[in-house]
Amino acid sequence: MENFGWVFIGCGKIAEKAAKSLIKAGAGRIAAVWNRTRARAEKFAEKYGGKVYGTAEEALNSGADCAYIATTHDRHAYYTELAVKAGVPVLCEKPVAVNFNEAERAIALAKESGVYVAEAMWTWHNPVSLKVKQWLSEGKIGDVKKVKAKFAFPMMYVNRNPRLVKPELAGGVLLDLGIYPIRYVYELFGMPSEIVCTGSLKGGIDTEEKIVMKYGGFEAEIFVSMKRLRGEKVVIEGDRGRIIVPYFHTAGAAYMTGESRSKFKGDKNPFGIEFRHTAEDLLNGANESAYCPVKNTLDVMRLLDECRKQMKIVYPCEKN
Predict the structure, then answer these.
(1) Is 173:207 a contact under the CB 8 Å cutoff?
(2) Separation between Cα atoms, residue 76 and residue 73, nearest integer Å
(3) pTM
(4) Which of 160, 111, 116 is nearest to 283 (CA)?
């Protein structure tokens, strides 16, 4: 796997974290790099390796084994399609597109072309998340009665990343943080019968939301915010116990109490696991990720679209 070559499209903060984790996990090497600002790409390549290319097209046609798309949200689908047209498999940062229609078009193109495309939803490559799913499937806490999830950090004030607050870059808390608990609940319980979303808006983007996903017999209550600190946790209440997952999107451990008591610790490099799984998929000839299948990505995009519809959020890139 050490010779498995990655082309990085986008060299921002998330790409830096990904590069460090990829190298640490031994999930291949960075072979090619492109960024809209060449100086940033050159600085990135000095640290993590890879040849810098002047255009994304040149980088994608450099002979690398897989493309990692780490641009701003509004360009994920564009570069995914560009890679597919070049015949290059794709691991695209979440969300794979701004809306369902974009995602469906990119995934349909990939299927028609026979090119592997997966969303980089590291949570579902993580052994901790998979253990929680197993506990539930085995009925360890009995019938689920309530689910609560929160993911709230004042990112818009602490990070001060313009990507977070610009509607033209599809900013806002839903696509940045909200996708994680929505996907978490979806992966455990499937599509809800109904999703209800209310939120706070500022400058054309959503800064905070309360989301309810309704299922037969229980509801999942979700709170997400990028303007206040409430922490990160998922709690699943059953009639015979509960499951608690602190820092659920990159969790290092999950706890089960009640009739069945257990603690499960996982790998602390979920980024690295994600890259390793993707490289293994491609080396083994898989045409889709078993951890993040495209159907799940499309279902979650439908839920995100419905939340934005209820909040009346339309990004400038959707108006063209």
Answers:
(1) yes
(2) 5
(3) 0.96
(4) 116
